[in-house]
Amino acid sequence: VNYLLQDQVDAARVEALQIDIRLRRLQENDVPRTPAVEEIDVMLRQVIRDTRSLTFDLYPPFIHDVTLNEALLWVKERIEEQYELTIYSDLPAQRITVERNLYVLLYMGVRELLVNCIKHAQARRIEMRMALVQDILSITVRDDGIGFPEEVPAVGGEHCAGVGLYHMRERFADFGVRLAIATAPREGSTVTIHVPASLVETG
Questions:
Q1: Which of 26, 40, 75, 145 makes a 20 to 30 Å CA pair with 115?
Q2: What does the pLDDT profile of the chain (203 residues) look like in tens digits?
Q3: What DSSP line would sit under 4-43, residue for residue?
Q4: Is the CB of residue 48 less than 8 Å from the CB of residue 16?
């Protein structure tokens, strides 16, 4: 799971490095602290703060001290605070836990789905639900956004959210977890993660 975290942080680090290089070149050439230079400095500091925040959001230090329910509730409230919106949720009262690596993957996957609803789907209403019924634990993220074609290519193409879902599906498959996608252009999207009950512990 560590490489998933690394992939998402690397992009922010590259951006910070590029800005830092520009700033250092200006300093080496004794360029006066013009408004443009000040702006670059401000940008660099902001990217550094954003990278630290992203690292915390993707893998908070308390992640293994709480149940899956509590982790998803925390990430929901965190995103609500960051983007100033409401995510409607329905989480079971019973304690639900899964194997460590799958736990982190589910947490990161649901976070990615919720952020996709905002950044790609342009949704006005977002819902997150989790239910344990018979032999399946289902985690569903639904939005009323712009949707995308289900035949999104595995790599390349313009539908970034769809490509991300393809890779998410591949990662879940390693654990025997299934990702179901129901979407169409301008009709919103519903993504459900189906976890076999054999991988779930309740209490």
A1: 40
A2: 444 545 555 555 566 666 666 666 666 666 566 676 677 667 666 666 666 666 666 667 777 789 999 999 999 999 999 889 999 999 998 899 999 889 989 998 999 899 889 888 889 999 999 999 888 999 999 999 998 765 544 444 444 455 678 888 888 999 999 999 998 888 899 999 999 999 999 87
A3: HHHHHHHHHHHHHHHHHHHHHHHHHTT----HHHHHHHHH
A4: yes
Burial category of 157 from C-beta neighbours within 10 Å (exposed 0-12, middle 13-18, buried 19 and up): middle
If one counts every other C-beta atom within 10 angstroms of the C-beta of residue 129, the result is 15
H or E element in which residue 179 lies: strand 178-183
103 contact partners, CB below 8 Å, separation of at least 6: 63, 64, 68, 71, 97
For residues 73 and 91, the answer to whether their CB atoms sit within 8 Å is yes
Burial class of residue 124 in the structure, from the number of CB atoms within 10 Å of its CB (0-12 exposed, 13-18 middle, 19+ buried): exposed
Cα(151)–Cα(168) distance, rounded to whole angstroms? 15
